[in-house]
Write a structure and sequence with these properties.
Length: about 325
């Protein structure tokens, strides 16, 4: 397909995003193609490892291509989004559980759906242009694609902070927060990929001393408060104007659900549990959440002034995260 270059390269399987003009946004077809490629290489003895990278300097993958989800939901066809999210999450889980090494080289913007691809690889390489974020609360969604699992395992209250504010992390912070593993100057990436493909030996992938991690020295204790309202109050007391400004832009429902989901994910035994919880929200997002309005304001009309209509109270959060019954996202194939 035009948006991905999938091929065998010596001892490696290679997946390259090839739509830099769209910041390598991930479409439904791309998610299916990535999963199919991984399935095809799983038992292929000629493929020792997998390399995932992207064309262009601006983005590894800046998120999911959600225009079709928006237009479907606007027209009352909520199944378009539901099918996309279900297939995307199964692909995310396949990457995390893959039996062979996967190396992801993540330059530029790595957001949302991009984190779902690169953030679950076993060997995650970042460089000086890397900017990783989970900004979904700004479009009326939640940090999905296994984002709540990653946020839940970040040190301290970094998970709550990133989920509620959508703040971006450079290479040092990404490694500190558990969203990446190795720092390597981007001028050395092509040589590293060539060696991996030639040798099929992941042990040859070595990082260098990463840049500083400002988050490691940042007091985020306010994000340990019980609710979003309590977090706001603590931030006001601390004089954290930047975090307050970020929170003021985002969907109250999305932030309240994100807080609940990140904390719930800390008790999950495997990422599939977090993905299933995320799917409960995204399954309902176009019909019952702020997603349509958020995408309209940020991506369609670009007026950046969403009119959030959904409450961020416990009852609404519970409704968005309630069991889907027969529509639950299931994992029989990976049991």
């Amino acid at each position: 397909m035009d948006d991905l270059h999938i091929r065998r390269d010596r001892k490696s399987g290679r997946i390259t995003f090839t739509r830099p003009q769209a910041l390598n946004a991930l479409s439904h077809d791309m998610a299916l193609a990535i999963h199919a490629a991984l399935d095809g290489w799983r038992d292929d003895p000629a493929v020792a490892l997998v390399i995932i990278d992207a064309e262009g300097d601006r983005a590894f993958c800046a998120g999911g291509d959600i225009a079709a989800v928006y237009h479907g939901g606007k027209a009352g066809d909520h199944g378009i989004g539901q099918r996309f999210f279900a297939d995307e999450y199964r692909m995310n889980a396949a990457i995390r559980d893959y039996p062979k090494p996967i190396a992801a080289f993540m330059q530029g913007f790595v957001m949302g759906g991009g984190v779902g691809v690169g953030g679950h690889a076993g060997h995650r390489v970042v460089g000086d242009t890397t900017q990783i974020a989970m900004p979904e609360s700004g479009i009326g969604l939640i940090p999905d694609v296994g984002g709540t699992w990653l946020l839940a395992h970040a040190p301290g209250r970094i998970g709550e902070y990133l989920g509620l504010t959508g703040a971006r992390m450079g290479a040092g912070d990404a490694i500190h927060a558990g969203f990446a593993d190795l720092y390597l100057p981007e001028s050395e990436w092509e040589g590293a990929k060539d060696r991996l493909a030639e040798t099929g030996d992941i042990s040859g992938l070595k990082g260098q001393t990463p840049p500083p991690a400002p988050l490691a020295a940042t007091d985020l204790s306010a994000f340990g408060a019980r609710s979003v309202a309590d977090i706001r109050a603590a931030l006001e007391k601390a004089g954290d104007a930047a975090s307050l400004k970020a929170i003021a832009r985002n969907s109250p429902l999305s932030m309240a659900a994100t807080l609940a989901m990140v904390r719930a994910a800390r008790g999950d035994r495997r990422m599939q549990e977090s993905l299933s919880r995320e799917y409960r929200f995204t399954h309902r997002a176009t019909a019952e959440g702020d997603f349509i309005e958020g995408v309209r304001a940020q991506i369609i009309d670009k007026d950046r002034t969403p009119n959030w209509s959904q409450p961020g109270d416990a009852a609404k959060v519970d409704a968005m995260l309630a069991d889907l019954g027969a529509e639950e996202l299931t994992w029989e194939e990976q049991a």
